[in-house]
């Protein structure tokens, strides 16, 4: 049985591979987005992270502009802007500007996590903890700045007023589900790494959803890790870069994305570690046929309206091939 028409998109962190310069990394990010456009992807989102040498998407709005300038039709956005790091006025000005240059193509995904460690969060904004507690109010400020009514206010984001920029709430826990439902906004859940709360968060969001001017019924985007190659064995080999990256996160030794190696017993054991296994629960690794069955099961389980695929690989050409095969899967499932 075929699934309803499920959209498919990409979340990218502009990961820096070993022996790659930042310029090369950004060029590869654009190259991937250009291919994604031809493969029929709906949107290409860039995440906000700070103080990580292996992540290039720290100046998120700047990178969104760069990718939008080199593409034609695919939506480009943030997955997300970590709102407590920023002034709502500045965010409205940045994304109002982007959407004026690239009309009907810019998305604004908002999250409340810092996207970094505590010390760096404090360096970004001294009152970060306080700002994160006011996330709902800060969200309302952004909505106000984008509204035509704000033309009469004393404080204005003039480049944002009346500009069409859809807002998405990002989440990795149940807190964000309540907020997205209350505000009547689409909800993007980070199930590509925060797997524990997926079921509860989606239930809360759908049960509590209140229609708004932005959205009449619930809309769920779910993150999944995708590594697809021509054979299961090749996909497993490529996944060794992801496994080493996960080990780096857990051990506090973050490093550039390493070239893939043959799968070893040691790396298989890492995959079976309870913490790693839970984190990678919605990671679909294998040939097209293998991953297709896993994606179909995930869609039946979540009833997601859209999948956002994350692919952490060393070589951009392997990424492009993986996303090409994922697009084929999504088209065949429709």
Any key phrases for this structure?
334 residues; alpha/beta; 8-stranded parallel barrel
Can you summarize this structure?
The chain is an alpha/beta fold and 334 residues long.
Blueprint (SSEs and pairs):
Layout: E1 7-12, H1 22-39, E2 43-46, H2 60-69, E3 75-82, H3 88-101, E4 106-111, H4 118-124, H5 128-133, H6 135-146, E5 167-171, H7 174-183, E6 187-189, H8 198-208, E7 220-228, H9 232-238, H10 240-251, H11 265-272, H12 274-279, E8 283-286, H13 288-302, E9 306-310, H14 316-333
Parallel strand pairs: 1-2, 1-9, 2-3, 3-4, 4-5, 5-6, 6-7, 7-8, 7-9
What would you say this structure looks like, in words?
The protein has 14 helices and nine strands. Helix 3 packs across helix 6 and helix 13 packs across helix 14. The chain starts with 6 loop residues before the first strand and ends with a helix. It is 46% helix and 15% strand. It has 334 residues and is α/β, with parallel strands linked by helices. The model has no long low-confidence stretch (mean pLDDT 95). The protein is globular and about 65 Å long. The relative contact order is 0.14. It has an eight-stranded parallel β-barrel with strand order 1-2-3-4-5-6-7-9, surrounded by nine helices.
Question: Which structural class do the helices and strands define?
Answer: alpha/beta
Assembly type of the chains comes to single chain
Report the mean per-residue pLDDT as an integer.
95
Largest sheet: 8 strands, parallel, barrel
Alpha-carbon distance between the two ends? 9 Å
- Report strand order across the widest sheet: 1-2-3-4-5-6-7-9
